[in-house]
Amino acid sequence: MKYIDEFRNKNLIREAVEAIKFISKKEITLMEVCGGHTTSIHKFGIPSLLPDNIKLLSGPGCPVCVTSRYFIDDALECSRTENIILTTLGDLIRVPGTETSLYKEKSKGRDIRIVYSVLDALQIAKDNKDKKIVFPGIGFETTAPLSAAAILQAKETGLDNFYILSAHKIMPPVMKALITEGVKINGYICPGHVSVITGTEIYKSIVEDYKLGCVVSGFEALDILQSIYMLVNQIEKNQPALENQYTRAVKKKGNKKALAMMNRVFETSDDWWRGIGTIPGSGLSLKSEFKSFDARQIFNPVERTESEEEKGCICGKILKGFKTPADCPLFSHLCTPVNPVGACMVSGEGSCATWYKYKREAV
Q1: Count of domains in the chain?
Q2: Does residue 346 belong to any structural domain of this protein?
Q3: Neighbour-count burial of 36, counting CB atoms closer than 10 A to its CB (0-12 exposed, 13-18 middle, 19+ buried)
Q4: Domain housing 94
Q5: What letters, b where the CB count within 10 A reaches 16 and e where it falls short, cover 260-283?
Q6: Is 99 inside a domain boundary?
Q7: Strand pairing report for 277-286 and 266-273
Q8: pTM
């Protein structure tokens, strides 16, 4: 299959691994900040192919994992409000809130519906004019344009019963925050899907201000190994740079139409990230022109302090790269995909869920 088989070619993979070993002399730590990369790295067994001096860390790249428990509480409050139908992506339904989850509330009879995209939620709004339809919008620059497109369509057609509960976030501020917090890394494997939308220039300031190499990567085994080679080459030469390995999908300027929709509907705001806290300018809130689509106007969210993890859960430290799932006392015993304690075990792109699927026998 074109664009897949050639990137899983065993001979090319062996050559890439040998090339990395040949040039790699320093102790190097690289971090990926994309849930898709986390899954691919462990599915293909990339860490086992690398020399011992290269370490890979998983950062806050899973949208479900970085979402606050209190955002889930707000979604739950929506579902309890009269005449509201809550629509949600499947990943979000089992994320624990402070006391319960959307899954448990749905089993009690709340009108909570799983959808494949925000456009499905829009259709439910068209079919149920006597109800208010709320869609919890999570994710980064990849999914924010979809929420923006739905809002623009609702506005154009005069649909006044559709609402977004936004927890959309953007990547560069959190990547900078990790460096500021003292996470010891030598380079970033930059997210592929985000970069398809944004282009590569959003990482330029990380290279210039923090002297840290950034390589945008694809998701196949050879993609990731080539990206690691590019970063190792930069580090060995002390020449941090912004490079694009994923050239078959990512362009310098990104998807201009998607960016235009996102920027028309949303503006940056401060937002809370699990395990990290509030990061200025890292969230996306609806602009005043589109506030009528903000779900927070149709229910009463309770003011809360920043949330804490469940006792024993170290999801926050895992998201910052300070710990791995193997360090968590709950991992694979009390916390499993069937009965998740922390958000990192819920999503298929979460570090804990990925380790459980591919590495738990080694823990």
Answers
A1: 1
A2: no
A3: buried
A4: 65-170+256-297
A5: ebbeebbeeeebbbbbbeebeebb
A6: yes
A7: antiparallel
A8: 0.93
pLDDT at 110 over 90: yes
Does the residue 54 lie in any domain? no
Q: Looking at this protein, which amino acid is placed at residue 291?
A: K
Q: Residues 126-165: pLDDT tens digits?
A: 999 999 999 999 999 999 999 999 999 999 999 999 999 9
What would the pLDDT profile of 33-69 be if each residue is shown by its tens digit?
999 999 999 999 999 999 999 999 999 999 999 988 8
On the 0-12 / 13-18 / 19+ scale of CB atoms within 10 A, 210 is middle
Provide the 10 A C-beta neighbour count for residue 167.
23
Tell me the residue ranges of DSSP E strands in 138-231.
162-166, 187-190, 213-216
Q: CA–CA separation, 271 vs 279, rounded Å?
A: 6
Structural tokens at position 1: 């299959």
Residue 84, domain member (yes or no)? yes
Phi and psi torsions of 233, nearest 5°: -60, -45
CATH code of the domain covering residue 117:
3.40.50.11740
Q: Are 39 and 348 in contact (CB under 8 A)?
A: yes
Q: What is the largest CA-CA distance in the chain?
A: 66
Distance CA(3)–CA(6), nearest Å, equals: 6
What's the gap between Cα 269 and its chain centre? 17
Q: How far apart are CA 170 and CA 112, in angstroms?
A: 27
